[in-house]
Amino acid sequence: MPNPTLAELAQMFDHSLLQPQLTDADLERGCRLAAEYAVASVCIKPYAVTLAWGLLAGTGVRVSTTIGFPHGGHLTRVKVFEALAAIDDGAVELDMVVNIGKVLTGDWGYVTADVAAVVEAAHDRGAKVKVIFENALLKDEHKKELCRICGEVGADWVKTSTGYAESGATIEDLKLMREFSPPHVQVKAAGGVRSYDTLMAVRAIGVTRVGATATKAILDDAKTRLGLA
After folding, report:
1. Is the distance from CB of 27 to CB of 19 less than 8 angstroms?
2. Active-site hit among 45, 79, 95, 130
3. Which of 45, 102, 159, 173 is catalytic?
4. What is the pLDDT of residues 185-224, one digit of tens each?
C-alpha cells in the first residue's frame, strides 16, 4: 500500500462529538476543528445536526449522526423516524446500532429487517448507513452473521462499536469484519484509535473510516511523520 497523503488520512476520520457532557459551545468548537482539518465528517448528537449543517456548509465536511444509539433497542419504526429526521436536518451519513439483544437471541429475521428498514429509508434519501455491532458484547459467530446481513441489505459500512462498551475496535475484529464483509461494504473502526500508529495499522487491514475524539492529536502527529510539520 503506497504511503498516504495527509489529506487521505484526514478523509478517514469521523470526528466524534457524542459525549453526553458536550455543550453547544463544545460541539461548535468540534465542528470548526473538523473543518480546519478537512476530515470526512463529524458524527454529532442528533439534536445538533442542524448546528453542524450550518457550520460545515461549503467546507466539504459531511454531517453524520447516530440512530438507535447507544444500545440499539429502539423500535424499528423509531429508528426509521430518527433516520428521516436526521436527513431532514442535514445529515448524509447515519451510524445505527443493531438491536444487540436480538443479535444475542439469534433472531436474525428481526435483525435483518431492522437494519434493512434504516438502510432503505436512508438510501431512498441519498444518505449512507454505518451499522454498529458493539463487538465487545458479541461472539465471532454473531459478528460474521452481521457482516453477511449487512452485505445482503446493502449497508455502506460495518462498524465495530459505539465507544461506550468496555472495549472498542480491535485488530482481530477488524480483520474478521473485512474478511466476512463483501467488497462493497466498507469497515469503520470506532473506540481505540488514538494514535498515528494505530491509524496506520487499521488502514493496512482495509479500514476506510475511524471514529475518533483524538482527531487533532493524530493528524498533528501525521504531519510530523509525513515531514509536513
Report:
1. no
2. 95
3. 159
4. 999 999 989 999 999 999 999 999 999 999 999 999 999 9
Domain positions in the chain are 7-225
How is domain 7-225 classified at the CATH fold level? TIM Barrel (3.20.20)
Catalytic residue list contains 175: no
Cα–Cα distance measured from residue 126 to residue 121, given in angstroms and rounded to the nearest whole number: 9
Q: Which amino acid is at 169?
A: A
How confident is the model over 83-129, as pLDDT tens digits?
A: 999 999 999 999 999 999 999 999 999 999 999 999 999 999 999 99
Catalytic residue, chosen from 102, 128, 130, 188, is: 188
Using CA atoms, how far apart are residues 97 and 79, in angstroms rounded to an integer? 9
Phi and psi based region of residue 60 (left: phi greater than 0; alpha: psi -120 to 50; beta: remaining): left
In the numeric block, the cell 436512508 is attached to: 122
Report d(CA 80, CA 86) in Å as an integer: 10
Three-class SS state of 121? helix
Residue 197 a catalytic site member:
no
Is position 216 annotated as part of the catalytic site? no
Q: Give Cα 46 to chain centroid, integer Å.
A: 14
One DSSP character per residue, 37-64 reads HT-SEEEE-GGGHHHHHHHHTTTS-EEE
Query: 429487517: which residue's cell?
Result: 113
